[in-house]
Structures are given as structure tokens and as C-alpha cells.
Structure prediction request, 291 residues.
Amino acid sequence: MALVLSAALLITYSQHRSYGHEHSTTTPVPASQPRPELNHPAEREAAIAAALSSQLHSQQLQISELQSELKNAKAATIAAQAERAQLLARIDSHEKEIAEQDRNAHQQAALVLQFQQQLADKEAVLKSKDTALASMNSRLSEATEQSTRQREINATLRKAQDLIAARDLHVISVSPMEPHGKSSPFGRILYAEGKELMFYGYDLTGSSQFADATFHVWGEKIGSSGSTRSLGVFSSDDKSAGRWRLTFTDADVLAHIDRVFVTIESTTEALSRPRGKTILLAYLGDKPNHP
Prediction:
């Protein structure tokens, strides 16, 4: 570029020189525009050379500035390219990280599904075991209930045997107060004088009016006012047979009563005196019929 500018300045200088030589004798200088006297050709050439040198210097300065700007631009371009390369590398690294995270996420999702399936399988196994355990508990409960029931039966049998073996045993059949067909309640008493009384009641709920009733058993001394005592409440002994039972062993109370009776009450709580209707009545004062 410097060579081109130098050539351009030389051409301009030659043109100015030729133009000055051709018009030095033919073109007069107007009187109204005074110019410095450059009569000698060497002076004119020196002035033109100075002007061209000034222009060349100015152009060189501009070229230097442009070269500096070009250098700065190249440096900025290189820096931008380096930054771009770094950004591309970072983008590539991030993309790899994202891809790795996606793979990990898929693996974790697969593990979660696997764990969920294992959990569902274990829950199914536990549910099966719970069902089996519930069945075993039910059978155990039934067995325990049967065992308890059998112990109660055995205890009752032993008591019955003791009663039957007593020398002063009373075996008393108890008829209903108001018979009303086959469903009429009745009872049977095993009584050892002053020791123990075992009272069995049958078909007590045979009538619909007795379905939700409670059956209280009482003892009293005939002719003695205020001698009525509660002996307790009938409990179901065998629902399928419609049998109820009460066992009383307070010797002091038994020594002071000679009659027992059953009333229908609306509560299972202990009562101080009978309130309901009497459905069964038995006398204990006769002589033992099984000595």
C-alpha cells in the first residue's frame, strides 16, 4: 500500500510539474489574486515536493493507524475465536453432562420401577402372610375359646359330680308360672343344702317378648319380710340347646333361703330387688330326694 501511495504521489508530482511548465508563459496571474513569486522552477518543484511529502506523511500516518486498527481487529478476532472455541467446548461439556444426567435419570427411573415392583411383590407376600396369620389367629381364637369352654364344662361337670355325690342332694324340676305351649320356659335345680345351688333354665327366650330380656335369679325365705336376695343373672350355657345356667355357692345366703325364682328384667346390672315379671319358681324346703 505504501508503494502504491508513493507511485500516486510521484505521478501527481510529475503532472503538476508538466502543468506548471506548460502554463508558466501563457497563463498570467490575475492582479486580484497575488501569489508568492516562484519564478524559479526549482522553487516550484520544491514547494510541490514539500506538499506531496506532507500528503505522503499524512497518508503514512493514516496507513499506520489503519495497520494498528487492523492488528487490533485481528487480535480481537483471535480472542473472539478463542472465546468461541472455549464456549463451544463448554457447550460440548454441558451437553455431555446433560446426556450423562439423562442416562443416570433413566437408570434411576428403571431402578425406581424395579424397587416399586419389588415392593409390590413384598407387599403381596406380606398380604398373603397377613391373610394366613389372620386365619391362624382365627383358628387359635376358636381353639382358645373351645379350650376355655371345655375348661368351663369340665369345671361344671366337676361341680355337678360334687353335687350328685352330696348326701343331701335336691333334684328339682321347675315348671313355668304360665305355661304356653312347647316354648314355655322350664328349669332344673341341683341343690346341696347350705352348700351349692346349680340352676339350669331352658327356653327362656322362646317367646318373642323375652328376646332382649335379662333373667335375674332371686332367693328368699318364705314368710320372712325383706329376706329377698339376688343370686345373680342367668348366663347362656348353650345357645343351640336354648340352655341358661347360674351357679351360686354362698353358704351363708343358701342357709337363709328356701325358695328361688326368676324374673324378667331390662338390665344386666345388679338389682337390690326384683322389678319384672316372675317366670320360674321353685321351693327348696323339701327333704333331699337323692340322699
